[in-house]
Amino acid sequence: MCGIVGYVGAKPAAPILVDGLARLEYRGYDSAGVAVLGPSEIRLHRDAVRVRELEAGLPKRFGGKSGIGHTRWATHGVPSQQNAHPQLSADGRVAVVHNGIIDNAAQLRAELEADGVPLTSDTDTEVLAHLIARAPADTLEDAVLTALGRIEGTYGIAVLHQAHPDRVVVARNGSPIILGIGDREMHVASDTAALVRYTKQVVHLDDGELATLRADGYQTFTRDARTTKTAVTVDWDASDYGTDGHEHFMHKEIAEQPDAVRRILKGRLDERFHTVRLGGLEMDARELREFRRVKILGCGSAYYAGQAGAQFIEEVARIPADAEPASEFRYRNPVIEKDTLYVAVSQSGETYDTLVAVQELKRKGGRVIGLVNAVGSSIARECDGGVYLHAGPEVAVASTKALTNMLVGFALLGLHLGRIRDVSPADGRRLIQALQALPEQIEAIVGDEEHLAAVAKELATAPSLFFVGRTRGFPVAREGAQKLKEISYRHAEAYQTSELKHGPLALVGPELPTVAIVPDDELLDRNLGALQEISARSGPLTVVTHDGVDLGVAPAHVIAVPKSEPELDPLLLTIPLQLLAYHAALTLGHDVDKPRNLAKSVTVE
């Protein structure tokens, strides 16, 4: 994996391909390349470099009106020129870019080598180029279908063939492919970010679908028949993918959170009946009352948001709820209950582990809704309904505004379920007023950045940290540790505060700082007792709490956030941890938006 672009039309392809790759850089990658179809040959330029270096090294004569490009995040083979995409067939007539993993690549490589085909890379992708070139077929489409018939695994591919200069053929199975409809030109990409500069009209391929792109249009089909697709309009603009004067995308997205929360709330709060309008669920009150349990599935930060969401739903709606990593869900052969509402959470809507969990649920008759940020994404289309997050494009690998809107999304869902059951109008009014206050409260936290930056500089020098929280605060601690690990590369562990004395307390001492989440709620006394335990062992303390709380100890740092209602406090307590991680990474000189070894949208297993 990571980013695919393609073009066919009347314009020079190379500049469009390079621009598209630049707009996909945020996904994370280690090499890049483009191939264009010249008058007599496929011209290839690739290397283990950044996109701008790739552009600077383009040969002067690199013309062509159709082409494909790729940014690669290594799965098979180290980052190198020979392993970069596009991959060519032995005769140089076929070029392929590919996201996903071919499970039977080793077997296919052995067969090709036995037939005397020279393999020049370590990638699984190269076998596709050879299989397509060797397929006995009259059309490129048939050759691609024949080759894909030999493949086991996942793929999103784009194929260029010297003998078919008027087209690019693409295919999808488990990895996103999106067509962009231009003016007498066609684009393709794995992410709408590469398309929005050129068109707002896009078509999402489904698994098992292929498409032929020509300058005058496109045709979609499967192995068995032609298909008909409806284009959708993308709301995001090319300007949404700029830093807007901020040093990093992550910093911009932290600052955008008040407006992102306003967007997700807009039109959804029903002050007359003190409830929430969620038409996207496509279920009425009678249907929703039938559910006896809520199961939330997500990966990474989405999973931690799911843990906080489960806490909110159980506390407010009084329905048993829990969260589980989507990456583990299908492998334990889960029991799918007809009276359980399953919720899939993903910023991109393309997270492969979450997508296959949704597909497993659907196969077994489960009712699943999505909390997704990307309209028209795979998970959004697979689910029975859902809640769009409306956070806007999130470019930085470390999620901030999308995670915050996930938490708001769960609050909306929990209040909706609660008012259908036993939540009183008074409690509904209380929570709606708290939701309405969130944007201004987040602005106040972000406005404390100078103080948070100073704290982060001290924490950045520690080789390891604890993050601790109890009940509502534990998902906050987990997300805080995750953020710090992702972009500062400092080791951080999250524990329930109550679990410290059952083992981890042995590590507490002057060299191990602890970031403690201490809301002013019904468990304040218990949390204060834990602070005493840490302080008694000379453990440096940074306490994230509310104004006016008497901590009973003298921590190294106190970070106070505005007080919300107890059920919504976790959302506000999370915000300063984003800025702590950001400034710790800056202190250590790391690339905040492109952390090592990570990608924005994980579309492989």
Summarize the structure.
The chain is of the alpha/beta class. Helices cover 34% and strands 22% of the residues.
- The overall number of domains is 3
Low-confidence stretches: none
CATH architecture of the largest domain: 4-Layer Sandwich
Question: Count of helical segments?
Answer: 18
- CATH top level of the largest domain? Alpha Beta
Average pLDDT for all residues: 93
Helix content bin:
25-40%
List the strand order in the largest sheet: 3-2-4-1-10-9-11-15
Kindly report how far apart the N and C termini lie: 11 Å
Number of strands: 27
CA radius of gyration is: 25 Å
Beta-strand portion reads 15-25%
Query: Which sheet architecture does the biggest sheet show?
Result: 8 strands, antiparallel
Helix-strand category: alpha/beta
Give a written overview of the molecule.
This protein has 605 residues and is α/β, with parallel strands linked by helices. The protein folds into three domains: 2-240, Aminohydrolase, N-terminal nucleophile (Ntn) domain (Glutamine Phosphoribosylpyrophosphate, subunit 1, domain 1); 244-442, Rossmann fold (3-Layer(aba) Sandwich), CATH 3.40.50; 447-590, Glucose-6-phosphate isomerase like protein, domain 1 (Rossmann fold). Helix content is 34%, strand content 22%. It contains 18 helices and 27 strands. The strands form five sheets. It has an eight-stranded antiparallel sheet with strand order 3-2-4-1-10-9-11-15, with helices on one face. Strands 5-6-7-8-12-13-14 form a seven-stranded antiparallel sheet, with helices on one face. It has a five-stranded parallel sheet with strand order 19-18-20-21-22, with helices on both faces. α4 crosses α5 (140-148) and α13 runs antiparallel to α14 (425-446). The protein is globular and about 80 Å long.
